[in-house]
Amino acid sequence: MEKRLSTTIWFGIITVGLTLFSAFDTTPGGARKNHQKPSIFDDKLQKAAFEILDAKCNVCHRKQNPFMVFKEKNISKRAKKIYRMVFAERRMPKGNEIRLTYEEYATLEK
Ligand code: HEC
After folding, report:
1. Can you tell me the distance from the alpha carbon of 98 to that of 36, in angstroms, rounded to the nearest whole number?
2. Residue ranges per structural domain of the chain
3. I need a surface site. Which of 7, 14, 26, 94 has the fewest CB within 10 A?
4. What is the DSSP letter of 56?
5. Ligand 1 centre from 80 Cα, in Å?
6. Is 99 helix (H, G, I), strand (E, B) or coil?
C-alpha cells in the first residue's frame, strides 16, 4: 500500500518534470518543437496547467467558490477568466498562503 502510494507520487513528479522540461526546451532553431505534433503538446500543457490549478486553486475554490472548481475539461473555456484573475488583475490565488512558483506561472500563462 505504502509502496504503491510512493510509486504514484514519483510518477506524478516525473510527469510534471518532463512537461516543464519540454515546455522550456530551448533547442536552437526550435528543432524539437517542429517535430512535435501540436495536439500532443497542448494535451501535456493542459494536463500540467490542470495539475497546478487543482493543487493551488481548487483547494480553496471547492470551499469558497464551488462554481469555479477547475477540471481538465473546463479550463480552456475558463482560460480567459483565469488569465484575468492571475495575470492581469493579480487577484488569484487569493490571500497570502498559497503562492505559485515561477515555473507554475510560466506553465499557466502558456
Ligand atoms: C484562498 C482561496 C482562493 C484561492 C487559493 C484561489 N481562489 Fe480564486 N476565488 C476565490 C474566491 C473566494 C472567489 C470569488 C470571489 C472573488 O472573486 O474574490 C474566487 C474567484 C475566482 C475566479 C472567478 C472570477 C470571476 O470573474 O468570476 C477565478 C477565475 C479564479 N478565482 C481563479 C483562481 C485561480 C486560477 C487560482 C489559482 C492560481 C485561484 N483562483 C486561487 C478564492 C480563491
Report:
1. 34
2. 2-109
3. 26
4. I
5. 13
6. coil
CA of 64 to the centre of ligand 1 (A): 8
**Amino acid letter, residue 6:** S
- 96: its cell numbers: 497570502
Where does residue 84 fall: left (phi above 0), alpha (psi -120 to 50 degrees), or beta otherwise? alpha
Q: What is the dihedral of CA 56, 62, 64, 67, to 10 degrees?
A: 110
Report pTM: 0.72
Residue 98 region, left (φ>0) first, then alpha (ψ -120 to 50), else beta? Answer: beta
Asked whether 32 and 25 are in contact (CB, 8 A), the reply is yes
What is d(CA 20, CA 14) in angstroms, rounded to the nearest whole number?
10
For residue range 58-107, what is the model confidence (pLDDT) as tens digits? 999 999 999 999 999 999 999 999 999 999 999 999 998 999 999 999 99
CA dihedral 26, 27, 30, 35 (to 10 degrees): -120
